[in-house]
Design a protein that fits this description.
By secondary structure, this protein is an alpha+beta fold. Helix content is 30%, strand content 26%. It has nine helices and seven strands, in the order αααββββαββαβαααα.
């Protein structure tokens, strides 16, 4: 394959960014950023280990789950999951993170880049209780860059257009788990485990 190996080659191909694209980058939250975070129920957290290997993890909760601590600091709770902790182990080795906060139905997004640490401060975790579940830790991010991103990718993909959705394009989560991860478990049991009612019941386990 023809490979780009320098920024000069990249710029020759893509051109220079327009001034507005550079000027929109900020180092502190605006009141509109705060409003976005208060309305957002979902974000993606990108991390990188000390060796450069990467991970992106989805985080979701009721709108406003990302707490604004001040104009330069936000916090994201840890909820019950698979306990792999890929992103958290990365943060221990390399604090730099990238976040994208989404609003359902909106094609634009809010991007935040910064440095993260894992925090267990009781007062902070007490502010993050949802349906009786208190997180065991929070990711506190010191903001280096924040800006809003245009919606071209969402428009091209028709992500929010129900007419473009095909939930049966690939096998169900239960069938994927049975084929690749949990081969020794009966498919019927996996279908019960991944059913909406059963799976949703474990989203916020009590302490």
């Amino acid at each position: 394959m023809a490979t780009i190996t320098s920024e000069a080659q990249l710029r020759e191909l893509l051109g220079e960014p327009v001034p507005a694209a550079l000027a929109k980058e900020r180092t502190a939250l605006h009141e509109l950023d705060r409003a976005w975070l208060a309305a957002s129920p979902f974000c993606l957290v990108a991390t990188s280990a000390g060796d450069g290997s990467c991970d992106v993890s989805p985080k979701g909760d009721p709108p406003g789950f990302t707490l604004v601590l001040d104009d330069r600091t936000i916090a994201i709770p840890e909820r019950a999951g698979n306990r792999r902790a890929d992103g958290y182990r990365n943060i221990l080795a390399n604090p730099h993170v990238g976040l994208i906060h989404l609003l359902p139905g909106r094609t634009d997004t809010l991007r935040i880049n910064g440095r993260a640490r894992l925090v267990t401060d009781p007062d902070l975790l007490d502010r993050m209780v949802v349906k009786g579940h208190r997180p065991v830790l929070a990711v506190v991010v010191e903001i280096d860059q924040v800006f809003h991103h245009c919606g071209k990718a969402f428009l091209r993909s028709q992500l929010w257009d129900p007419e473009s959705w095909d939930t049966e394009a690939v096998p169900t989560r239960a069938r994927i788990a049975h084929a690749m991860e949990r081969r020794d478990e009966p498919l019927e049991e996996l279908e019960r485990y991944y059913s909406p009612a059963t799976y949703s019941a474990g989203l916020y386990p009590s302490a």
